[in-house]
Amino acid sequence: MEYLPLFGSLVGIAVFGAYFYRRARVAGTACDCGDRVDGRVVLITGANSGIGLQVARELALRGGRVYLACRSLEEARHTAFSIINETSNTSVRPLQLDLNSLASVRRLVSELRQAETRLDILVNNAGCFYCPPSLTEDGFTVTFQTNYLGHFLLTRLLAPLLVQAAAGARVVFVSSAAHLTVSRLEFDCAGRAAQPAGAPPLPPAGVPAEPPARLQYHVAAYGQAKLALAVFAAELARRLRGKDICVNSVDPGNVNTDIYRHYRELNTFHVRLLRCFLMRTPSEGAQTVIHCACSSKIDGVTGQYFNPRGLAMSPIHWRSADGAVERTLLPAEADRSAGGDGPSGPAGLCQPGARCRLLVETEPDCPPPAGLDLSDPAVSAWLPAGAATIGEADTELDRLLERCLRSLRPADRGNELFAAGRDVDALYRYRRALALLVYILPEGLSEAERAAVASARLACRANLSAVLLRRGRHEAARAAASRVLIEQPNHVRCLYRRGAANLALQDHEDAERDLRRVLELDPGNAAATRQIALLDKRKRDVDQHTANFMTKYFQQ
């Protein structure tokens, strides 16, 4: 009993310490601005719960005409009724928006245009994480379309209303630090976000699948979408600079919302208790978003990335800095859905009736391909403008193919440097070759021409995987080899490189599968035989270690 006072004191110190730690490290900074938004038109996506709900409630309290864009119209109506009762602001309206349907985005824009002549504040908040891998009705991954593509199309179609705003309009993108976990934007030739290496094939649209066992698949997919959103926001801010439209991104921090509902491991009883302590509440996460949406302290501030403590940082990612923006194909369907609305035209999107579309990949040190006119309105509209639409003229297709052939020169030089042991220089040449390569989906191109383009691309990626493996960059080597194996599953060298990379990464099961496949295709492959021998030795060592441990344990 004599220790009870001491025990109580220790418990009290622990509780107060945890409270102050949470205030200092988790809660973040509250928005202290008192600015009103009376009469200003506000649209918030994902406004029925989490951060979106808190932002909607706060802007309604400040007098805004708030439109709640939610997947379920019934939930939007219920939320609007609740906010009206809490704030006495009757200018709160529900709208139905399913970001997994580009048609739904168009319908929402049509409804808003009928109701309003301007839009003062657009908060792109909705998002998803750890979704079962499947395709939307438009043919894109759910994570990619929900987090990026739907918001891209929505922002583009609402451009005329933003321009018509009486005072400076504001566009706020709710981002995430997850975009820093990926080093580059990866898209396949159909415009979808590429699956991470080793991910299972996607089922058809509307058909759910079992989620992959590894968290890295979901983190990579989410990071890709958020990086695309960050690049779009930064480039949009740059192009609209001087037009009295402020575009900023916000990282709300790790917020305890329904975005984790698909992640079962985070929804157990004990973990949910920890989430309440270690994560921000939706109200705390919404503070920086509210600050960027209505604070007069940041009038004229655009192109910034606000961290959870409300501090502006620039650049947010080396991929979104001026001059280093990833030149990325955006899906042709988005352009067809956009129609002729908005400024001069989208970049990187096929016009209806165009013969082909292309993707240009660039590295920070590699400029866009020569001959690509970035001042062309069809190229330089709202998005990173490294991709252009190729029209009907055969001469344009000829120039496109000529550019592909030009990419072979740095690739050949890369081969020479690799043979000479100059790995860093070879890596640069291969990346420059990929910067010049284009991915074509033409209607009138011959099979031989298509085969030549595909062969050049695959050869460059295969060589890139070899350099990366020799440099010890095993994750990147595995990813590059996997990209080749998607199109050529029996590519012996890439199978070997992926197997060797998996072995170095201690992924023995996948390594053995790839190396055994190499020996099936090429029984005399000495390198694969050596790797298999090394793998078998590791297995024997592990078995021997386990046996020794068990023997020693039972002897005791």
Query: Which residues form runs of ≥5 with pLDDT under 50?
Result: 188-194, 202-213, 317-403, 438-443
The CATH superfamily of the largest domain is identified as NAD(P)-binding Rossmann-like Domain
Q: Write down how many β-strands occur, each being a DSSP E stretch of 2 or more residues.
A: 8
Radius of gyration from CA coordinates? 26 Å
Q: Which sequence of SSEs, written as H and E, runs from N to C?
A: HEHEHEHEHHEHEHHHEEHHHHHHHHH
Strand content: 5-15%
Tell me the name of the CATH class of the largest domain.
Alpha Beta
Overview of the molecule:
There is one protein chain. With 556 residues, this protein is of the alpha/beta class. The protein has three domains: 37-313, NAD(P)-binding Rossmann-like Domain (Rossmann fold, 3-Layer(aba) Sandwich), CATH 3.40.50; 353-471, no CATH class; 474-556, Serine Threonine Protein Phosphatase 5, Tetratricopeptide repeat, CATH 1.25.40.10. It has 19 helices and eight strands. An eight-stranded mixed beta sheet has the order 3-2-1-4-5-6-7-8, sandwiched between helices. Helix 7 (215-239) links the parallel strand 5 (169-174) and strand 6. Helix 16 packs antiparallel against helix 17 (492-504). The longest helix has 30 residues, at 526-555. The protein starts with a helix and ends with a helix. Residues 188-194, 202-213, 317-403 and 438-443 have low confidence and may be disordered. InterPro entries: NAD(P)-bd_dom_sf, Sc_DH/Rdtase_CS, SDR_fam, TPR-like_helical_dom_sf, TPR_2, TPR_rpt. One of its GO terms (molecular function) is oxidoreductase activity. It comes from Amphibalanus amphitrite. Keywords: Oxidoreductase, Repeat, TPR repeat. This is Retinol dehydrogenase 13.
